[in-house]
Design goal:
There is one protein chain. The chain has helices spanning 10-18, 27-38, 96-108, 114-139, 155-167, 171-174, 188-197; strands at residues 46-50, 56-61, 64-65, 143-147, 178-181. The protein is of the alpha/beta class. The chain is globular, with a radius of gyration of 18 Å.
Amino acid sequence: TALQWRDVPLAERLTDRLGIPASIGNDIDMTTLAAVRFQGVGVRDLLLVSLDNSIGMGIMVGGRLVAGEHYHAGETAHVTIFDDGLTCLCGRRGCILAYISAARSAVASPFVSDETKQESLTMAGKAIGVMIAPIASALNLTTVLISGPGTLVTPGLISAASDMCEIRTLPLLNTTIEFMALRDDPDLVLLGAAARALGDGPV
């Protein structure tokens, strides 16, 4: 982490200091809670793919967030998507973050053609589809939300992700997986934190 903290019982310390129950959650998990509790996403089993900063996922099963044994569920930035793919900042090749970063750079540059921007967004969408396919299959999830800036979360990116996921899953499953853009709301993280305070927490 940026603060280089390890095994710090922050929630317990805040509870002791403030005199009220405190809990800790990351921004993507809070966005996932907010999408379900306050944006009318009418499902209890879903993946949320966030492109707001890097890339990560929120996973909800049975209406509850999945945190993982070490609270790292959904940390997918350096999952290898394509062997011998783009070089990532971590030094490896083919990480999904490399494709998201390439698309982010392309759409932000005034020197990149519209065609190249669309190609970058399509490749990023394909990478997301490759990442999601085995997770959605294993957990039998039917809803995928993609959040982030409108320059990235475009119809082309969503379509590429959906098409690639369909290619890599059985027809019985892929016909039920719906990909959607999450409506942009700067308060989603705060709303999710409110949901957590009201008792919604990880599995």
